[in-house]
Structure prediction request, 225 residues.
Amino acid sequence: DGGITQSPKYLFRKEGQNVTLSCEQNLNHDAMYWYRQDPGQGLRLIYYSQIVNDFQKGDIAEGYSVSREKKESFPLTVTSAQKNPTAFYLCASRKGTEETQYFGPGTRLLVL
Amino acid sequence: DAKTTQPTSMDCAEGRAANLPCNHSTISGNEYVYWYRQIHSQGPQYIIHGLKNNETNEMASLIITEDRKSSTLILPHATLRDTAVYYCIVRVLERSNDYKLSFGAGTTVTVRA
Prediction:
């Protein structure tokens, strides 16, 4: 099956700990995106990447880092600098010639 | 960026058409109107998009006014599985061929039996 996968579905982080959220796609899409969603709110863009080895900050990049070493993978690291990391994290991808973004199932991050 | 305004919530009877309005009075000529929906605790799902003309697909119809300042998403025969938050989004173009979607709070649609 083609699609976008995110893992894990739930993730727990201790205070001061870095954690990495996985996002993989086998759609051969060029662009990938990370969004954060807080309860009752819309999505806010954290980082996005148009091509391998290139990425740009979104609206709320502070406390997060990404890498794009492979076309199919775009992991997001939530660092200890992110003071309020509890949220629902969504990854999306887009084919370079098309408008539409396709979303993964999300990872819910909780701080212990 | 063109902002969108949607009602916070609306109810719809199962089997009836659901008409979801969206205002985007500051939209630019080259900006598309997108609709996504998000079922509880899932990732958003693309529904439809358009520029000037009305559009229809297997999920919904999109009606855009002639001045492009507002649009309506129509779910022709709502089912209980259509209960979700519906987002109206105007695409923002950044750099060449970069896109990002700005999600507001959306409209919470509840379909009732």
Observations:
- The radius of gyration of chain A is 13 Å.
- The interface with chain B takes residues 4, 31, 33, 35, 40-45, 48, 50, 56, 58, 88, 90, 92, 94, 96, 99-106, 108 of chain A (CB under 8 Å).
